[in-house]
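for the record, two folds in this file. i put them one after another cuz i was lazy. first one right below, seq on top, structure tokens after. the second one comes after a little note so u can tell where it starts
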Amino acid sequence: MIRQNIIKEITAEINNLLNEVYQEALQLLANRWIFMDNKDIFYDGKIKGYFPNCNEYTCTHSGNTFDIPQFEDLSWSLLSETELTVLYNDSKNFPFKNKEKFLVAPNTWSTEIRCLDNQGKTKYKSFDKECTEGYNFPVSRLESRYNLVKEEVVIHWLQNNIIPRDSKLKDTYKTLIDIYKNTDVNYVRNHVDQTIEVSKMHQVFNNSDVTSGTDKLIKFIPQVIFNQVEKCKQDLLDCDKHKIASPSYDTEILTTGHWEVTEQTNNILSIKNNNAKYRNPILDIKEGGVVGIDFGAKSTVVVYQENSQDIVPMYIGTPTDNLSASDFENPTLMKLTDVESFMENYNSKISRPNTKWADITISHGALDQFLENSRRDYYMFLNDLKTSCTYDDESFNPMEIYAYYLGLYINNMRNGIYLQYLISYPVSYSTELRQRLVKSFEMGLKKSLPQEILSNEEVMKKFSVTGNVSEPAAYVISAFKEYGFCPEDGEAVYYGVFDFGGGSADFDFGIYRAANKKQDKRRHHFALEQFGAHSDPKLGGEKLLKIIATTAFKANINYLKKQDITLNGRNVAIIMELLRPLWEDDKDYKSTINKTQIRLFKDNDQLSAKLKLKIDCDMLEEMLKNRIELGVARFFTSLRDTFSDITTEGSATINIFLAGNASKSRIVRHLFEKYMQGQTSYDIFPPLGTQEAKEKMLERGIQVSDDITRPTAKTAVAFGTIIGRKTGNINIINHNEAFDTDTSFNYYVGQCDRHDKFETIITPTSNFQRWIEFIDAEIDAFELYYTTSPLASTNTLEINEVKKINVHLQFAYEDPTVVVFIRPVSTTEIEYMVARKIDVDYEILELPKVIKLN
């Protein structure tokens, strides 16, 4: 690659010189007659040939033979009759003339010239008259054709050591002529661009040792070669700058050791008596190092641990001063400027390919560009990377590319190399989606590793990417540590996590206890047992913001139509930013929103003038409250269902942890207070990193730190992936996975009560394996109702707001002990059977049948 780059760069430099000469030559060739500086000849642009300067050359007089002149290393011949006619017709402009006569020798003038007719026979002419004798006035033709293009004229000059007298680039001519004479290169016409370019450069660099070519060229273009040496040196220092816009490495790294130094590199550097030291990347592996990743819908957090218990968050972007805790929330955003160019480079190598930051940009760099361009390039930005986990496009996997970029920020000559990666996953992800998430990150992270790592089998045995824990479980692991939970032997801490992020709301329920010999290993100090994990996949902070932005647009639809503005993605994105202060509960957000003017995109793709939208903040806030309440209701339903199956010790407290940035909302806090009202068995823990969390810690006697690297409502998930690693001291026991199911059931299933309300029988927390008594079988049919609305858990949902299925049995049974049993069997399916329950067994009368819910 270095050899190819050197050839490419030197070729480009020579082509630049050729282009300079050619552009000047175009101006010179606008004249018919061009005198040469280093030869006693002049060029005739009409005849396409050279004539001798007869002040220095003597034409012979007519005789029986024409002796070919040996003059200025050119090939000479007699003029054709046609050429001579042209010359006579233009004789007034001929450079060397005395009245109507041509200079044919020093101080000798004549009009009688010897020429050749169409049959090649000798003729003597004086203008349009034939005569019996004349001078042998020679011509050196470029070619025997009249359509010779200007590029070929200039090439002839360079190949024959001819330099125009009026050129201001005589030194450049000399350089190009010397290169042509002393190397194997050639100058050829570029038919596409209609210019001149160098060819056969690979014959100059005829082996893998680039010095063979540079040695030949250095005497002619020393500065070009020296520039390449400096460029080679700078490329080593900028090897990551081009990929991820990181600062250049200090020059000291060339002497202490650089991963990409090769023999070819030092061959080039040695031209200026420089050299660089190679360092094997294997030496920079962080033994015991581990990286935790929380890949979020809005932001992604990366944390790492080396040879201590300290876990440190990482900023994914160009280093900056005055970082805050929120800066470690790296935007899950990608700008796609030139995907084709990026993927061509990306697929060209299996290790650290020469991709360009300008082609695809991520994280803070992408966000900065998103905010700077007034959304004009909105459709170049990809902000739903997490949903790409469901895509099947193998040609471009956004998650893999994002992971590759993360890998470049993690693995470099400043940080070293990490081989162990732990990634959290959403509760709602099926096994297939988890595997796809892990596989995508594995491919991208591998691509960021040096070739020496990838090709070493023993080293790669240590490489791993594992989806080790769900996002809410990872959060609560961090929260237990931050809030100082340390259960003693026999003590169990009951918990529930409401993880409200940008893309969804995930719930996790279980107990945190001291490890014991019966269930845990000797290495474990504590155990986390998960008994319930559920999700509201449509409840996410960014999703809610998009809903109220769309609502605000529709409320102003008549006003906006007059401005030729319609609803589209980038206009919604602009309004989302306008309403963000409402969602984030900023101080005086109503005043801020109502004073702010925005510019939206019109149908002609132009920005409008500044607009003042009418925003009903109270109505939008009520919308948020109503939708969030559905999620909170679903959380408490899941909590009750989960802990109804767990034997608790009397009136044990259930500790509720709020997680995710969206959980910091005032609306969330008020709704939890509402649902916990009058309940003494709940204790709520505010999102980490908030002032309320610090106050709670002080209540518990925990020392509070303002260190920006401490876990927050968002970053704590990534911390938890490392704390909860398999080699750690917490045994994570996920009872949800014991049922061999991909995820929880998606529906509430039930029947109609006497008040025409929906009565819930099966919920998303119901056990996939357990049959539930549903209805008698005394009639050979029954009705079954279902919905996805969390309000179903309150048994107050109107029956006309849910769906109904009519089911027919094979028979009707008069025996009242024969009933219909139902149970969930997949995310969208239930089974029913007719049976008689005898103790713990069933006498099955009609075999189970599956019902698909839509």
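(here's the note) second protein begins now
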Amino acid sequence: MLFGRNSGENAGQLSVQLWLFFCEVDLGGRQMVGLGLQQKLSMVVSRLSRVRILRHQTRVWLVLLIPAAVLVLLLPVQIGSWRPEVPVLLGATVLGVLLARILVRQPSLSEAARLVEQRDQGLHDVVLTAVQMLSQYPPPQTVLAQMTVQDADDLVRQRDWSKVVPAGQILKWSVLSLLSFLLLVSSVTAASHYGRRLLPAGSQAQSTEKGAGPNSEAGQQQLVVEPGDTEVEQGSALTVVARFSGTAPEKAVLEFVGADSATRQISLSETVDAGVFAARMEDVTSSGVYRVLYQQQLSAAGAPQQSRDFQVTVFVRPKLEQIDAEVTPPAWSGRAVETVEDVVRLTVTEGSQVRLQMRLNKPVVQAELRPAEGPAIPLTAASPDGLVVQTQLTALASATWTVHLQDAQGRTPADEQQFSLRVVANKPATIKPTFPARDVNVSPLQEFFVEAAATDDFGLVNAGLEYSLAGGESREVSLLQPTADGAPVTAAQLRQLIDLESLQAAPDDMVTYTFWAEDRAADGSLRRVWSDLLFAEVRRFEEIFREDQQGGQQQQQQQQQQGGQQGQGQQGSQVDNALELQKQIISATWNLIRQFAQLQSAGTLSKDLETLVQSQKQAIDVLQQSLAQGPQQPQISALAEQAVQEMTAAADALSKATTEMTVEQVALALPLEKKVTQTLLRMRAAEFQVRQQQQQQQQGQQSQSQGQQNSASQQQLQQLELDNNRNRYESQQQAQQQEEQQQSQEQREQLQVLNRLKELAQRQQMVNERLKQLESELRTAQTDAEREEIERELKRLRDEQREMLRDADELAERMQQSAESQQPQQQQMQQ
């Protein structure tokens, strides 16, 4: 009857839809009227049908709720391997879906058109009329019918009919349908659970009549225990789940019997799933057996039923207990052998021998240190019981390894620990001139004072001064004074008076000097570094600097000599330029010799040598331009030609070095370059006269004629006007300001580290107090459960204490590094 009641309407609707489809295209393939109207109406029909189906589905779920719950109560507690609520819910779901679609009457096009006309009053029955004409006049249609349909089609293309059946209405009935279905499921499940509770104890007994006892096969089928026979890590927890397929017992207990015959019982708690009980037994320390004891009714007499015995095997994972390190520093460091216990981060000197001993909780078949990249380092047994393994390392570079352990069963630690080795590199010594720290002019009979600061991270072996006249042999003086207690000297002030008279320095000579320092390299070899090369020009005796008291007489002499001084000033300017450029070439050659290996490895040595050659040729061009400006005095011309020849020889030596690429060949060019400076010094004018006048214009004219000529002598005049100690005081003040800025930054870093150490100390104090409290509570504990809880808390606090100690070691290491970096500077400031 359900199908017969709607068969006429459905057939009529089907004929209309087919007719509309064939009306869309005529026999010649031309598009006909009514396509837009048909699409719009089909959309309305689909949305309206969906709402009706959801509405009927909601009603069906609610109607089936009570019959389904009653049916679950009437069915047996077990249908094969399924519970009774499962087939009932499946049947109710299928029946509800089918009834909702069978009972729903499919809306027709006319019904959809009327609904559209009701929601959209502006259509004035155009859509309804068009649908009726399409249904009354089959193709071919009359002209009037086509016009009516065309007008309706044009009208509906401009309108939105999605709101005729709103999306909110579809969503509302979808939610209601889902809620009614969930209500059906929960009601059937609750009825099934309630029905099993109502069953008498005899019903459960009848289901186990075939079993001979609690351990019979039939009895075992009623209970499933998970995980069964299992393995657990020592000290971890064991979780047991008991699934009762029949009526759930009123009480269930987990019983565990250890290897020492000690028995532990824990009540099983019922979970949200019907007939499922679970219990968690903490801190399983030994192997044993466990079983599930259960009783259907607490009032029933007799012994409880029980499952079969299940075996629990306790295993122990390999674990790293402690790392001890024995550090043997290299002989050149002068440090003693050091033993560090319980360390995970170790700082050593480059080249040290490190012996690591690691204590394990059990013997292992494989132990090694695994780096992030590269081969692993094997650990060998260091004790007969195999609980201590060791290895020997040579500290060449910082690295971090993972301690990998594996026992005979293939087990590894749950958390593999890491060991970090920080290697402090043996850096070369540093040396820097502090006074005068620039080029100076000196007298042939003068003893001029020089000073430098030398530092080294592990201790200076020797330090001193090397000086020579241009073109002469070098003299070397050791200036390092050993300490009274024989401790390594990490910072030293080097001071020396250079006696020019004993050096037989003559006017227009050039003295070059440099400081040097020696230390031990990582391989124990002696290593030397040099400071920058500095120059001291030996002035002539007849170079007199005086102030003319009679301005008029000086002005008259200056006017008479103005023409001659102008030409001489240009010559002096070119010589000074060539001399300054030659000094720069010497300094660049010296720096290249000092850094020869680094430049060669960086691949820039050839380019730097080419630059030196070009600079030497440029100095030749500058000097030749001074000769080409006009006739010169014979003595100056001869000196200029000699300087050009010496420059050419130096350039040839540098050019040869570009092909041979050896430091020895570069060193051959340095004496030739120094000889050039001595020749250029002899070309300078013999006497300079300086006057000071109050008139700014006269001072400007005098500075224009003589400013470039006496550039080197101005430094001598400044030395006459300024006191030597004042210069040193100013240099020390500048160095002290820089030192204070650097120390302020380091103090901020140290303050952060100290705050962190203070925080760790407070936490350590709190942990110690809590440990004392727990130890007192452990002595007064009454039950095993209390003791187990206290022991777990003690274990956690001890682990936290170890972690804080490691953090403190790391912070102490950072402070030590900061102190080591400040120590040489402080020693230098004290000296």
